[in-house]
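4.2 Preliminary Data

To establish feasibility before requesting continued support, the project team ran the inverse folding procedure on a target of 229 residues. The structure was first converted into the token representation described in Section 3, and no sequence information of any kind was made available to the design step. The complete token record follows.
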């Protein structure tokens, strides 16, 4: 069972409440920020705490040239793909603050991927780096991309259609390189991508896995806990 909860602020008290409410016995955290030291202290004091880093290797050969700069969320997703989609070529598309693309091949080898601007970031960039273009809102639950009939809709069309073209281009590229590709879509803007791609030629390859990071972290906990016990 997966319980996902968004907290406005991660505080020691909030984490302690969750530990008590759900009787959490083991924990880990995907962050390198010093601001979470107190939270980690609570986890260590009240659970079996497993330290997570890109050095956590549970079956994936990490060929990333700079593992120290590899985002922990990226590594967690790769681990999840390894466990939940074994012996498959998995192309992970995480549409969040950035749009991150990662490939784990069928031999459980990871070489890296691509990092692109997220949707919100693109809207903000158009406003920030131009003199007159406004900051435009968008509804991530909306399935239609508007025609560019005025400045607002032109920005929406350019950003949103540009993202879809980019995602489809990356999937096409990976299909040309890998057989039987499984495309895993996750992240806060995943719903928008899924609506846009549901009638595309890529639809049969796509799986929506919203908890990919959490699944990867859970596998790290399970592996480390078994090893130590």
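Position-by-position output of the design step:
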């Amino acid at each position: 069972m997966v319980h996902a909860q968004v907290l406005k602020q991660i505080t020691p008290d909030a984490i302690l409440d969750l530990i008590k409410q759900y009787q959490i016995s083991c924990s880990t955290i995907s962050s390198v920020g010093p601001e979470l030291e107190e939270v980690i202290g609570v986890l260590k004091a009240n659970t079996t705490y497993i330290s997570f880093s890109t050095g956590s290797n549970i079956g994936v050969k990490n060929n990333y040239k700079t593992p120290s700069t590899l985002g922990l969320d990226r590594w967690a997703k790769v681990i999840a793909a390894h466990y939940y989609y074994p012996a498959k070529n998995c192309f992970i598309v995480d549409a969040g603050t950035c749009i991150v693309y990662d490939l784990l091949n069928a031999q459980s080898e990871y070489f890296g991927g691509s990092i692109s601007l997220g949707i919100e970031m693109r809207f903000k960039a158009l406003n920030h780096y131009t003199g007159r273009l406004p900051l435009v809102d968008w509804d991530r639950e909306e399935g239609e991309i508007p025609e560019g009939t005025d400045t607002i809709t032109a920005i929406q069309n350019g950003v949103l259609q540009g993202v879809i073209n980019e995602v489809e281009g990356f999937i096409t590229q990976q299909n040309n390189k890998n057989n039987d590709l499984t495309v895993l879509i996750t992240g806060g803007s995943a719903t928008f991508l899924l609506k846009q791609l549901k009638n595309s030629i890529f639809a049969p390859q796509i799986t929506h896995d919203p908890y990919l990071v959490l699944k990867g972290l859970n596998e790290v906990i399970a592996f480390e806990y078994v090893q130590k016990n």
